[in-house]
Design brief:
This protein is mostly helical. The chain contains 18 helices and six strands. It has a three-stranded antiparallel beta sheet with strand order 1-2-3. The structure holds s-citryldethia Coenzyme A (SDX). S-citryldethia Coenzyme A binds next to loops.
Protein backbone atom coordinates (compact mmCIF):
# COMPACT_ATOMS: atom_id res chain seq x y z
CA UNK A 1 0.00 0.00 0.00
CA UNK A 2 1.56 3.32 -1.05
CA UNK A 3 1.72 6.15 1.50
CA UNK A 4 0.33 8.54 -1.06
CA UNK A 5 -3.06 6.84 -1.19
CA UNK A 6 -6.33 6.28 0.61
CA UNK A 7 -8.04 2.93 1.14
CA UNK A 8 -11.80 2.82 0.87
CA UNK A 9 -13.62 -0.05 2.53
CA UNK A 10 -17.21 -0.78 1.67
CA UNK A 11 -18.45 -1.91 5.09
CA UNK A 12 -21.53 -3.47 3.54
CA UNK A 13 -19.50 -6.30 2.02
CA UNK A 14 -15.92 -5.71 3.22
CA UNK A 15 -14.60 -4.96 -0.30
CA UNK A 16 -11.64 -2.63 -0.23
CA UNK A 17 -9.62 -0.67 -2.77
CA UNK A 18 -6.73 1.77 -2.77
CA UNK A 19 -6.86 5.11 -4.54
CA UNK A 20 -3.91 7.39 -5.32
CA UNK A 21 -3.78 10.88 -3.83
CA UNK A 22 -2.93 13.58 -6.36
CA UNK A 23 -0.87 16.37 -4.83
CA UNK A 24 -1.03 20.02 -6.02
CA UNK A 25 1.67 22.69 -6.06
CA UNK A 26 -0.45 24.39 -3.40
CA UNK A 27 -3.95 23.79 -2.00
CA UNK A 28 -6.01 20.65 -1.41
CA UNK A 29 -4.80 17.22 -2.48
CA UNK A 30 -7.33 15.10 -4.39
CA UNK A 31 -8.32 11.46 -4.28
CA UNK A 32 -8.18 10.06 -7.80
CA UNK A 33 -11.59 8.35 -7.92
CA UNK A 34 -11.61 7.61 -11.64
CA UNK A 35 -11.49 3.84 -10.92
CA UNK A 36 -13.98 3.95 -8.01
CA UNK A 37 -16.80 2.42 -10.07
CA UNK A 38 -14.53 -0.21 -11.64
CA UNK A 39 -12.96 -1.21 -8.29
CA UNK A 40 -15.90 -0.87 -5.87
CA UNK A 41 -18.98 -0.32 -8.05
CA UNK A 42 -19.49 3.06 -6.38
CA UNK A 43 -20.02 6.65 -7.56
CA UNK A 44 -19.30 9.77 -5.51
CA UNK A 45 -22.23 12.07 -4.65
CA UNK A 46 -21.39 15.78 -4.56
CA UNK A 47 -24.19 18.11 -5.77
CA UNK A 48 -22.73 21.60 -6.19
CA UNK A 49 -19.26 20.02 -6.48
CA UNK A 50 -18.22 21.32 -3.06
CA UNK A 51 -15.40 18.76 -2.76
CA UNK A 52 -14.87 17.74 -6.38
CA UNK A 53 -12.02 18.79 -8.67
CA UNK A 54 -13.09 18.73 -12.32
CA UNK A 55 -9.65 19.34 -13.80
CA UNK A 56 -6.02 20.12 -13.26
CA UNK A 57 -5.27 23.79 -13.89
CA UNK A 58 -2.28 26.17 -13.84
CA UNK A 59 -4.30 29.33 -14.23
CA UNK A 60 -5.88 30.61 -10.99
CA UNK A 61 -5.39 29.65 -7.37
CA UNK A 62 -7.85 30.51 -4.60
CA UNK A 63 -7.51 29.85 -0.88
CA UNK A 64 -10.91 30.61 0.64
CA UNK A 65 -9.71 30.36 4.25
CA UNK A 66 -6.74 32.67 3.76
CA UNK A 67 -8.51 35.00 1.31
CA UNK A 68 -5.93 34.37 -1.42
CA UNK A 69 -6.46 34.86 -5.17
CA UNK A 70 -3.56 34.54 -7.66
CA UNK A 71 -3.55 34.55 -11.48
CA UNK A 72 -0.69 32.35 -12.70
CA UNK A 73 0.93 32.76 -9.26
CA UNK A 74 0.72 36.57 -9.18
CA UNK A 75 -1.30 37.94 -6.19
CA UNK A 76 -4.44 39.78 -7.28
CA UNK A 77 -3.39 42.72 -5.06
CA UNK A 78 -0.26 43.28 -7.21
CA UNK A 79 -2.07 42.88 -10.52
CA UNK A 80 -4.86 45.24 -9.39
CA UNK A 81 -2.27 47.81 -8.38
CA UNK A 82 0.25 47.52 -11.24
CA UNK A 83 -1.28 45.75 -14.24
CA UNK A 84 -4.18 46.41 -16.61
CA UNK A 85 -6.88 44.22 -18.08
CA UNK A 86 -5.22 43.53 -21.42
CA UNK A 87 -1.91 42.55 -19.78
CA UNK A 88 -3.78 40.42 -17.23
CA UNK A 89 -5.65 38.73 -20.10
CA UNK A 90 -2.32 37.94 -21.79
CA UNK A 91 -1.04 36.48 -18.50
CA UNK A 92 -4.14 34.30 -18.08
CA UNK A 93 -4.06 33.13 -21.70
CA UNK A 94 -0.34 32.48 -22.15
CA UNK A 95 0.89 31.91 -18.58
CA UNK A 96 3.51 34.67 -18.45
CA UNK A 97 3.49 38.47 -18.20
CA UNK A 98 4.23 39.82 -21.70
CA UNK A 99 7.45 41.57 -22.66
CA UNK A 100 6.96 45.05 -24.10
CA UNK A 101 7.09 43.74 -27.68
CA UNK A 102 4.72 40.86 -26.85
CA UNK A 103 2.33 43.34 -25.25
CA UNK A 104 2.47 45.67 -28.25
CA UNK A 105 1.74 42.78 -30.64
CA UNK A 106 -1.11 41.54 -28.46
CA UNK A 107 -2.65 45.00 -28.10
CA UNK A 108 -2.36 45.63 -31.86
CA UNK A 109 -3.94 42.25 -32.59
CA UNK A 110 -6.85 42.80 -30.19
CA UNK A 111 -7.45 46.35 -31.49
CA UNK A 112 -7.67 45.00 -35.05
CA UNK A 113 -10.32 42.44 -34.18
CA UNK A 114 -12.75 44.76 -32.40
CA UNK A 115 -15.07 45.34 -35.40
CA UNK A 116 -17.90 42.82 -35.86
CA UNK A 117 -19.45 41.69 -39.16
CA UNK A 118 -22.00 44.30 -40.23
CA UNK A 119 -24.63 41.54 -40.62
CA UNK A 120 -24.47 41.09 -36.83
CA UNK A 121 -26.15 44.48 -36.57
CA UNK A 122 -29.25 42.96 -38.20
CA UNK A 123 -29.12 40.22 -35.58
CA UNK A 124 -28.99 42.78 -32.78
CA UNK A 125 -31.70 44.93 -34.36
CA UNK A 126 -33.97 41.90 -34.33
CA UNK A 127 -34.32 42.14 -30.55
CA UNK A 128 -37.02 44.27 -28.95
CA UNK A 129 -35.69 47.45 -27.35
CA UNK A 130 -36.70 46.08 -23.97
CA UNK A 131 -34.54 42.95 -24.35
CA UNK A 132 -32.17 42.43 -21.43
CA UNK A 133 -28.61 42.94 -22.71
CA UNK A 134 -27.57 39.60 -21.18
CA UNK A 135 -30.22 37.84 -23.29
CA UNK A 136 -28.78 39.58 -26.34
CA UNK A 137 -25.21 38.71 -25.36
CA UNK A 138 -26.02 35.00 -25.08
CA UNK A 139 -27.55 35.03 -28.56
CA UNK A 140 -25.09 37.27 -30.36
CA UNK A 141 -21.87 35.78 -28.94
CA UNK A 142 -23.17 32.30 -29.76
CA UNK A 143 -23.93 33.48 -33.29
CA UNK A 144 -20.32 34.59 -33.87
CA UNK A 145 -19.47 31.02 -34.92
CA UNK A 146 -21.72 31.61 -37.96
CA UNK A 147 -19.30 34.31 -39.14
CA UNK A 148 -15.91 32.75 -38.51
CA UNK A 149 -15.75 29.43 -40.36
CA UNK A 150 -12.04 30.15 -40.93
CA UNK A 151 -11.17 29.46 -37.29
CA UNK A 152 -13.43 26.71 -35.99
CA UNK A 153 -10.97 23.82 -36.08
CA UNK A 154 -10.44 23.51 -32.33
CA UNK A 155 -7.65 20.97 -32.88
CA UNK A 156 -5.61 23.70 -34.59
CA UNK A 157 -3.70 25.85 -32.04
CA UNK A 158 -3.69 28.80 -34.41
CA UNK A 159 -7.47 28.59 -34.86
CA UNK A 160 -7.89 28.39 -31.08
CA UNK A 161 -5.69 31.42 -30.51
CA UNK A 162 -7.45 33.43 -33.23
CA UNK A 163 -10.89 32.54 -31.78
CA UNK A 164 -9.73 33.49 -28.28
CA UNK A 165 -8.38 36.85 -29.49
CA UNK A 166 -11.52 37.52 -31.53
CA UNK A 167 -13.68 36.88 -28.45
CA UNK A 168 -11.56 39.12 -26.23
CA UNK A 169 -11.70 41.85 -28.87
CA UNK A 170 -15.33 41.58 -29.94
CA UNK A 171 -17.22 40.94 -26.71
CA UNK A 172 -16.96 44.61 -25.59
CA UNK A 173 -18.06 45.78 -29.07
CA UNK A 174 -21.05 43.41 -28.94
CA UNK A 175 -21.86 44.44 -25.36
CA UNK A 176 -21.83 48.12 -26.30
CA UNK A 177 -23.96 47.46 -29.41
CA UNK A 178 -26.49 45.53 -27.28
CA UNK A 179 -26.67 48.43 -24.83
CA UNK A 180 -27.01 51.00 -27.62
CA UNK A 181 -29.82 48.98 -29.22
CA UNK A 182 -31.64 48.43 -25.91
CA UNK A 183 -31.44 52.16 -25.14
CA UNK A 184 -32.44 53.29 -28.64
CA UNK A 185 -29.09 54.95 -29.33
CA UNK A 186 -27.14 54.76 -32.61
CA UNK A 187 -24.28 52.22 -32.74
CA UNK A 188 -20.77 53.53 -32.10
CA UNK A 189 -17.82 51.82 -33.73
CA UNK A 190 -14.56 51.03 -31.89
CA UNK A 191 -11.73 53.59 -32.07
CA UNK A 192 -8.33 51.92 -32.24
CA UNK A 193 -6.51 54.92 -30.81
CA UNK A 194 -8.26 54.31 -27.47
CA UNK A 195 -7.25 51.77 -24.83
CA UNK A 196 -9.35 48.66 -24.25
CA UNK A 197 -11.47 50.05 -21.40
CA UNK A 198 -11.62 53.58 -22.84
CA UNK A 199 -12.87 52.10 -26.11
CA UNK A 200 -15.67 50.29 -24.29
CA UNK A 201 -16.78 53.45 -22.50
CA UNK A 202 -16.56 55.38 -25.79
CA UNK A 203 -18.70 52.76 -27.60
CA UNK A 204 -21.25 52.81 -24.79
CA UNK A 205 -21.55 56.46 -23.89
CA UNK A 206 -20.34 58.67 -26.76
CA UNK A 207 -22.59 60.32 -29.34
CA UNK A 208 -21.74 60.87 -33.03
CA UNK A 209 -22.96 64.45 -32.62
CA UNK A 210 -20.20 65.59 -30.27
CA UNK A 211 -16.75 64.81 -28.95
CA UNK A 212 -16.65 62.46 -25.99
CA UNK A 213 -13.92 62.47 -23.40
CA UNK A 214 -13.68 59.28 -21.38
CA UNK A 215 -13.72 60.07 -17.66
CA UNK A 216 -10.36 59.00 -16.17
CA UNK A 217 -12.22 58.19 -12.92
CA UNK A 218 -14.60 55.86 -14.75
CA UNK A 219 -11.81 54.29 -16.81
CA UNK A 220 -9.71 53.62 -13.72
CA UNK A 221 -12.62 52.10 -11.82
CA UNK A 222 -13.66 49.92 -14.77
CA UNK A 223 -10.08 48.74 -15.37
CA UNK A 224 -9.96 47.59 -11.74
CA UNK A 225 -13.32 45.81 -12.01
CA UNK A 226 -12.14 44.05 -15.17
CA UNK A 227 -8.83 42.90 -13.63
CA UNK A 228 -10.56 41.65 -10.47
CA UNK A 229 -13.24 39.75 -12.41
CA UNK A 230 -10.98 38.32 -15.12
CA UNK A 231 -10.85 34.77 -13.73
CA UNK A 232 -11.84 32.85 -10.65
CA UNK A 233 -10.91 29.16 -10.93
CA UNK A 234 -13.74 26.67 -11.60
CA UNK A 235 -16.79 28.84 -10.78
CA UNK A 236 -20.19 27.98 -12.23
CA UNK A 237 -19.80 29.83 -15.53
CA UNK A 238 -16.22 28.65 -16.13
CA UNK A 239 -17.27 25.08 -15.38
CA UNK A 240 -20.10 25.57 -17.88
CA UNK A 241 -17.60 26.68 -20.52
CA UNK A 242 -15.41 23.67 -19.77
CA UNK A 243 -18.32 21.21 -19.81
CA UNK A 244 -19.62 22.65 -23.09
CA UNK A 245 -16.19 22.49 -24.70
CA UNK A 246 -15.67 18.88 -23.55
CA UNK A 247 -18.06 17.79 -26.32
CA UNK A 248 -15.98 19.63 -28.91
CA UNK A 249 -18.39 22.54 -29.30
CA UNK A 250 -16.88 25.65 -30.86
CA UNK A 251 -15.47 28.34 -28.56
CA UNK A 252 -18.13 30.93 -29.41
CA UNK A 253 -20.90 28.52 -28.38
CA UNK A 254 -18.98 27.63 -25.19
CA UNK A 255 -18.49 31.24 -24.17
CA UNK A 256 -22.19 31.92 -24.87
CA UNK A 257 -22.99 29.05 -22.48
CA UNK A 258 -20.72 30.68 -19.89
CA UNK A 259 -22.55 33.99 -20.32
CA UNK A 260 -25.87 32.21 -19.77
CA UNK A 261 -24.61 30.59 -16.56
CA UNK A 262 -23.09 33.83 -15.26
CA UNK A 263 -26.47 35.59 -15.58
CA UNK A 264 -27.91 33.86 -12.49
CA UNK A 265 -28.33 36.10 -9.40
CA UNK A 266 -26.37 33.60 -7.28
CA UNK A 267 -23.39 34.16 -9.59
CA UNK A 268 -22.65 37.06 -11.91
CA UNK A 269 -26.18 38.44 -11.70
CA UNK A 270 -25.47 39.35 -8.08
CA UNK A 271 -24.07 42.82 -8.87
CA UNK A 272 -27.36 43.84 -10.50
CA UNK A 273 -29.28 42.08 -7.70
CA UNK A 274 -27.34 44.09 -5.09
CA UNK A 275 -28.64 47.37 -6.47
CA UNK A 276 -32.17 46.05 -6.83
CA UNK A 277 -31.96 44.94 -3.19
CA UNK A 278 -30.71 48.38 -2.07
CA UNK A 279 -33.47 50.06 -4.09
CA UNK A 280 -36.04 47.74 -2.50
CA UNK A 281 -34.78 48.45 1.04
CA UNK A 282 -35.01 52.15 0.10
CA UNK A 283 -34.78 53.40 3.72
CA UNK A 284 -32.19 52.63 6.46
CA UNK A 285 -35.05 52.00 8.90
CA UNK A 286 -36.09 49.04 6.72
CA UNK A 287 -32.70 47.31 7.05
CA UNK A 288 -33.43 45.29 10.24
CA UNK A 289 -36.52 43.77 8.58
CA UNK A 290 -34.56 42.62 5.54
CA UNK A 291 -31.71 41.27 7.69
CA UNK A 292 -34.32 39.35 9.72
CA UNK A 293 -35.70 37.85 6.51
CA UNK A 294 -32.20 36.88 5.38
CA UNK A 295 -31.72 34.95 8.63
CA UNK A 296 -35.13 33.26 8.55
CA UNK A 297 -34.73 29.59 7.56
CA UNK A 298 -38.29 29.59 6.23
CA UNK A 299 -37.62 32.55 3.97
CA UNK A 300 -35.38 31.97 0.94
CA UNK A 301 -34.55 35.68 0.88
CA UNK A 302 -30.79 36.35 0.83
CA UNK A 303 -28.76 39.49 1.04
CA UNK A 304 -27.32 39.88 -2.43
CA UNK A 305 -23.60 40.56 -2.48
CA UNK A 306 -22.93 38.61 0.70
CA UNK A 307 -21.37 35.19 1.09
CA UNK A 308 -19.28 33.05 -1.19
CA UNK A 309 -18.91 29.35 -1.85
CA UNK A 310 -15.12 29.43 -1.56
CA UNK A 311 -14.20 32.47 0.51
CA UNK A 312 -14.95 31.69 4.12
CA UNK A 313 -12.76 34.66 4.87
CA UNK A 314 -12.86 38.01 3.10
CA UNK A 315 -12.99 37.86 -0.71
CA UNK A 316 -9.63 39.53 -1.52
CA UNK A 317 -11.26 41.22 -4.48
CA UNK A 318 -13.85 42.75 -2.17
CA UNK A 319 -11.10 44.13 0.06
CA UNK A 320 -9.44 45.78 -2.95
CA UNK A 321 -12.61 47.04 -4.58
CA UNK A 322 -14.08 48.27 -1.26
CA UNK A 323 -11.30 50.85 -1.06
CA UNK A 324 -11.80 51.86 -4.69
CA UNK A 325 -15.53 52.11 -4.04
CA UNK A 326 -15.07 54.44 -1.06
CA UNK A 327 -12.47 56.52 -2.94
CA UNK A 328 -14.84 56.83 -5.92
CA UNK A 329 -17.78 57.91 -3.76
CA UNK A 330 -15.50 60.54 -2.17
CA UNK A 331 -14.22 61.66 -5.60
CA UNK A 332 -17.70 61.94 -7.13
CA UNK A 333 -18.78 64.84 -4.93
CA UNK A 334 -22.45 65.31 -4.45
CA UNK A 335 -23.22 61.67 -5.04
CA UNK A 336 -24.88 61.18 -1.71
CA UNK A 337 -27.54 58.80 -2.93
CA UNK A 338 -29.32 57.32 0.12
CA UNK A 339 -28.60 53.95 -1.44
CA UNK A 340 -24.90 54.23 -0.65
CA UNK A 341 -25.73 55.01 2.98
CA UNK A 342 -27.90 51.89 3.13
CA UNK A 343 -25.06 49.87 1.62
CA UNK A 344 -22.64 51.08 4.29
CA UNK A 345 -25.10 50.20 7.06
CA UNK A 346 -25.75 46.76 5.57
CA UNK A 347 -22.01 46.16 5.31
CA UNK A 348 -21.55 47.10 8.96
CA UNK A 349 -24.31 44.75 10.08
CA UNK A 350 -22.90 41.84 8.08
CA UNK A 351 -19.49 42.41 9.62
CA UNK A 352 -20.89 42.49 13.18
CA UNK A 353 -23.99 40.26 13.25
CA UNK A 354 -23.39 36.74 14.64
CA UNK A 355 -25.52 35.07 11.93
CA UNK A 356 -23.28 36.49 9.20
CA UNK A 357 -20.03 36.20 11.12
CA UNK A 358 -20.67 32.54 12.09
CA UNK A 359 -21.40 31.70 8.44
CA UNK A 360 -18.55 33.81 7.09
CA UNK A 361 -21.00 35.84 5.05
CA UNK A 362 -18.83 38.81 4.22
CA UNK A 363 -19.58 41.33 1.48
CA UNK A 364 -18.24 39.82 -1.75
CA UNK A 365 -16.84 41.46 -4.86
CA UNK A 366 -20.30 41.89 -6.34
CA UNK A 367 -21.48 43.98 -3.38
CA UNK A 368 -18.93 46.70 -4.10
CA UNK A 369 -18.75 46.37 -7.88
CA UNK A 370 -22.52 46.93 -7.99
CA UNK A 371 -22.11 50.17 -6.04
CA UNK A 372 -19.22 51.36 -8.23
CA UNK A 373 -21.14 50.67 -11.44
CA UNK A 374 -24.16 52.49 -10.03
CA UNK A 375 -21.97 55.46 -9.06
CA UNK A 376 -20.59 55.50 -12.63
CA UNK A 377 -24.16 55.65 -13.96
CA UNK A 378 -23.70 52.30 -15.68
CA UNK A 379 -27.21 51.12 -16.64
CA UNK A 380 -28.37 48.48 -14.16
CA UNK A 381 -29.13 45.86 -16.81
CA UNK A 382 -25.51 46.17 -18.03
CA UNK A 383 -23.95 45.24 -14.67
CA UNK A 384 -23.72 41.52 -15.39
CA UNK A 385 -22.64 42.28 -18.95
CA UNK A 386 -19.64 44.11 -17.43
CA UNK A 387 -18.88 40.97 -15.42
CA UNK A 388 -19.23 38.82 -18.57
CA UNK A 389 -16.86 41.07 -20.54
CA UNK A 390 -14.26 40.88 -17.79
CA UNK A 391 -14.62 37.12 -17.32
CA UNK A 392 -14.16 36.48 -21.04
CA UNK A 393 -10.38 36.48 -20.47
CA UNK A 394 -10.75 33.73 -17.87
CA UNK A 395 -13.23 31.71 -19.89
CA UNK A 396 -11.04 31.68 -23.04
CA UNK A 397 -7.95 30.87 -20.94
CA UNK A 398 -9.65 27.97 -19.15
CA UNK A 399 -11.10 26.78 -22.47
CA UNK A 400 -7.65 26.89 -24.06
CA UNK A 401 -6.15 24.94 -21.15
CA UNK A 402 -8.85 22.31 -21.42
CA UNK A 403 -8.23 21.91 -25.16
CA UNK A 404 -4.62 20.88 -24.46
CA UNK A 405 -5.33 18.67 -21.41
CA UNK A 406 -4.86 15.04 -22.50
CA UNK A 407 -6.62 13.79 -19.39
CA UNK A 408 -9.85 15.56 -20.28
CA UNK A 409 -12.76 13.59 -21.80
CA UNK A 410 -16.35 14.52 -22.49
CA UNK A 411 -17.89 15.65 -19.20
CA UNK A 412 -20.59 13.18 -18.28
CA UNK A 413 -21.51 13.12 -14.54
CA UNK A 414 -23.42 10.14 -13.12
CA UNK A 415 -26.35 10.23 -10.66
CA UNK A 416 -28.00 8.71 -7.62
CA UNK A 417 -31.21 7.33 -9.16
CA UNK A 418 -34.21 7.73 -6.83
CA UNK A 419 -37.03 7.17 -9.30
CA UNK A 420 -39.38 4.20 -9.89
CA UNK A 421 -37.37 1.04 -10.44
CA UNK A 422 -39.56 -0.76 -12.99
CA UNK A 423 -43.22 -0.61 -14.01
CA UNK A 424 -45.35 -1.65 -17.02
CA UNK A 425 -47.15 0.70 -19.39
CA UNK A 426 -50.88 1.14 -18.64
CA UNK A 427 -53.32 1.95 -21.42
CA UNK A 428 -54.81 5.42 -21.03
CA UNK A 429 -58.32 3.90 -20.58
CA UNK A 430 -57.11 2.05 -17.47
CA UNK A 431 -55.33 4.96 -15.75
C1 LIG B 1 -19.85 35.19 -7.55
O1 LIG B 1 -17.73 30.73 -7.51
C2 LIG B 1 -17.21 31.88 -7.75
O2 LIG B 1 -16.01 32.01 -7.74
C3 LIG B 1 -18.21 32.97 -8.05
C4 LIG B 1 -17.61 34.35 -8.22
C5 LIG B 1 -16.71 34.46 -9.42
O3 LIG B 1 -15.87 35.35 -9.47
O4 LIG B 1 -16.94 33.68 -10.40
O5 LIG B 1 -16.87 34.71 -7.06
C6 LIG B 1 -18.69 35.40 -8.44
O6 LIG B 1 -20.74 34.49 -7.96
C7 LIG B 1 -19.86 35.76 -6.15
C8 LIG B 1 -21.15 35.38 -5.34
C9 LIG B 1 -22.27 36.34 -5.79
N1 LIG B 1 -23.57 35.85 -5.26
C10 LIG B 1 -24.25 36.56 -4.34
O7 LIG B 1 -23.81 37.57 -3.78
C11 LIG B 1 -25.63 36.00 -4.04
C12 LIG B 1 -25.85 35.91 -2.51
N2 LIG B 1 -24.98 34.84 -1.98
C13 LIG B 1 -25.54 33.54 -1.82
O8 LIG B 1 -26.50 33.16 -2.74
C14 LIG B 1 -24.51 32.48 -1.44
O9 LIG B 1 -23.72 33.04 -0.48
C15 LIG B 1 -23.62 31.90 -2.51
C16 LIG B 1 -24.40 31.34 -3.65
C17 LIG B 1 -22.67 32.93 -3.03
C18 LIG B 1 -22.81 30.78 -1.86
O10 LIG B 1 -23.70 29.77 -1.56
P1 LIG B 1 -23.20 28.44 -0.80
O11 LIG B 1 -21.74 28.33 -0.74
O12 LIG B 1 -23.94 27.31 -1.41
O13 LIG B 1 -23.62 28.75 0.65
P2 LIG B 1 -24.86 28.14 1.33
O14 LIG B 1 -26.03 28.39 0.43
O15 LIG B 1 -24.54 26.74 1.69
O16 LIG B 1 -25.04 29.05 2.62
C19 LIG B 1 -24.42 28.70 3.83
C20 LIG B 1 -25.30 29.34 4.90
C21 LIG B 1 -26.78 28.98 4.75
O17 LIG B 1 -27.36 29.09 6.03
P3 LIG B 1 -27.43 27.75 6.98
O18 LIG B 1 -28.07 26.67 6.13
O19 LIG B 1 -26.01 27.44 7.35
O20 LIG B 1 -28.29 28.16 8.16
O21 LIG B 1 -25.26 30.78 4.75
C22 LIG B 1 -26.56 31.26 4.41
C23 LIG B 1 -27.36 30.08 3.91
O22 LIG B 1 -28.73 30.28 4.14
N3 LIG B 1 -26.35 32.27 3.38
C24 LIG B 1 -26.92 33.47 3.36
C25 LIG B 1 -26.38 34.12 2.25
N4 LIG B 1 -25.53 33.31 1.62
C26 LIG B 1 -25.51 32.16 2.32
N5 LIG B 1 -27.83 34.04 4.19
C27 LIG B 1 -28.21 35.30 3.87
N6 LIG B 1 -27.76 36.02 2.82
C28 LIG B 1 -26.83 35.45 1.98
N7 LIG B 1 -26.35 36.14 0.96
Amino acid sequence: MSENSVTITDNRNGSQAEFEILNPVVGNSCIDVRQLNAKLGLFTYDPGFQATASCKSDITYIDGDEGILRYRGYPIEQLAEQSNYLETSYLLMYGELPTESQYREFEHSIKHHTIVHEALMQFINGFNNNAHPMAMMVGVVGALSAFYHDSLDISDPQHRDLSARRLLAKVPTIAALCYRHASGKPPVYPRNKLGYIENLLHMMFSFPSEDYLVSPIAARAMELIFVLHADHEQNASTSTVRLSSSSGANPYACIAAGIASLWGPAHGGANEAVIRMLEEISNPSEIPGYVKRAKDKDDDYRLMGFGHRIYKNHDPRATIIRKACNDLLDELEGINQPMFEIAKQLERIALEDDYFVERNLYPNVDFYSGIILKALDMPLNMFTVVFAMARTAGWISQWGEMMTDNEQRIGRPRQLYMGDELRDYVDIRQR
